[in-house]
């Protein structure tokens, strides 16, 4: 008999049929919503918890403490419920009522961090408080998604390998959206080692500074950070970086629901804008096989992206005009084709925020 955690992974790969002519364009989505916690984050969350159990970092009766405004926290809450751990998740005022309700339904304790950091977001203040609680609460464990190398390793050993086998080794490009860098770090390492001809394309939000640039606020959920995360340990493995605008991404989400019957989250809309751009520009040569990783489910965003009032209050276009969307897509240009040039690594952060990840590894090495 299997348990709920045995259902993590093995997500389907589906081809788009209506938004583009599938005889000319081969765009596929890997639907990570089929994971039991509803997103791709179940994979690194489960991988990290299992590793922590094996290495003795997480013991029975322990407490998992994490900073997350969305999917990673929900995955940990689900896993904690299934495995009998106390779970504390640090969120911020931008966390949606749906995500808060999910965290609470799984029995997690939720702390809302209201102090902004120097970039105007809550990442650093949330992480610093999570690390402080970890020092204070005995038998607690910090998955530390922004700094733990196990995050990228979960995708390197799991998701990327699974996709490659599913495609029978036949693909030209993979499009990944970025926040902690777990996905793009793990996938880029896998493809450089196993299929170097596959183009690895990273998509950040306009306004985020993972790959440098000008910081400003943005609405895309689950994307962006104010530094290059250490899970992207080698920017040379990434071929191209795009920055997706909020409006184009949300339009794409709504278009996908209406024309493909696929409800997807904002980051998938952003990834799809870029996947479509890559497909259209490859038109003259042979048909490109492009896969976009669809990280979560649109039902989490019914009161935002799929709500006309919410969109109009933010001056976002709610009309569904395929020609209009195609025009926007064709205007999009890569932000960088040499991401190392605009790297925004901040190695001091790991120490300033007192991240426990290095300490875990050091303690283990010391026996
Ligand atoms: C919906 C969604 N898309 C994309 C990402 C980016 O994934 P990663 O953190 O592996 O870079 C996240 C991360 O939180 C997410 O929740």
UniProtKB/TrEMBL annotation:
The lineage of its organism: Bacteria, Bacillati, Bacillota, Bacilli, Bacillales. Pathway: Amino-acid biosynthesis; L-cysteine biosynthesis; L-cysteine from L-serine: step 2/2. Its EC number is 2.5.1.47. PANTHER family: CYSTATHIONINE BETA-SYNTHASE (PTHR10314). InterPro entries: Cys_Synth/Cystath_Beta-Synth, P-phosphate_BS, TrpB-like_PALP, TrpB-like_PALP_sf. Its cofactor is pyridoxal 5'-phosphate. The keyword Amino-acid biosynthesis applies. One of its GO terms (biological process) is cysteine biosynthetic process from serine. It is an enzyme of class 2 (transferase). Belongs to the cysteine synthase/cystathionine beta-synthase family. This is Cysteine synthase. It comes from the Bacteria. It holds the Pfam family PALP. Gene3D superfamilies: 3.40.50.1100. Signal peptide: none annotated. It comes from Paenibacillus agilis. Residues 5-296 form the Tryptophan synthase beta chain-like PALP domain. One of its GO terms (molecular function) is cysteine synthase activity. Keywords: Amino-acid biosynthesis, Cysteine biosynthesis, Pyridoxal phosphate. It catalyses: O-acetyl-L-serine + hydrogen sulfide = L-cysteine + acetate.
């Amino acid at each position: 008999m299997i348990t709920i955690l045995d259902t993590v992974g093995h997500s389907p790969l589906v081809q788009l049929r209506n938004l583009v002519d599938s005889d000319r364009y081969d765009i596929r989505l890997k639907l990570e919503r089929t994971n039991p916690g509803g997103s791709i984050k179940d994979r690194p969350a489960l991988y990290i918890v299992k590793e922590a159990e094996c290495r003795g970092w997480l013991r029975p009766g322990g407490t998992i403490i994490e900073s997350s405004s969305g999917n990673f926290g929900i995955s940990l809450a689900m896993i904690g419920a299934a495995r009998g751990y106390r779970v504390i998740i640090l969120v911020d005022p931008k966390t949606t009522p749906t995500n808060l309700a999910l965290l609470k339904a799984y029995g997690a304790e939720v702390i809302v961090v209201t102090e902004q950091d120097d970039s105007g977001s809550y990442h650093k203040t949330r992480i610093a408080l999570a690390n402080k609680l970890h020092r204070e609460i005995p038998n607690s464990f910090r998955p530390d998604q922004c700094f733990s190398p196990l995050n990228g390793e979960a995708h390197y050993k799991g998701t990327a390998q699974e996709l490659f086998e599913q495609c029978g080794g036949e693909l030209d490009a993979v499009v990944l959206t970025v926040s902690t860098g777990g996905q793009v770090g793990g996938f880029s390492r896998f493809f450089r080692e196993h299929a170097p001809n596959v183009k690895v394309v990273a998509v950040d939000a306009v306004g985020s500074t993972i790959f440098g640039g000008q910081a400003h606020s943005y609405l895309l959920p689950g994307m962006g950070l104010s530094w290059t995360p250490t899970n992207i340990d080698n920017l040379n493995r990434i071929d191209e970086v795009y920055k997706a605008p909020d409006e184009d991404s949300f339009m794409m989400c709504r278009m996908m629901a209406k024309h493909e019957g696929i409800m997807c989250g904002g980051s998938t809309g952003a990834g799809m804008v870029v996947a479509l751009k890559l497909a259209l520009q490859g038109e003259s040569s042979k048909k490109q096989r492009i896969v976009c990783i669809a990280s979560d489910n649109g039902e989490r965003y019914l009161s935002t992206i799929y709500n006309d009032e919410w969109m109009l209050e933010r001056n976002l276009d709610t009309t569904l005009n395929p020609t209009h969307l195609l025009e926007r897509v064709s205007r999009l240009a890569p932000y960088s084709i040499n991401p190392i040039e605009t790297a925004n690594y901040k190695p001091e952060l790991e120490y300033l925020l007192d991240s426990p990840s290095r300490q875990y590894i050091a303690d283990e090495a010391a026996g």
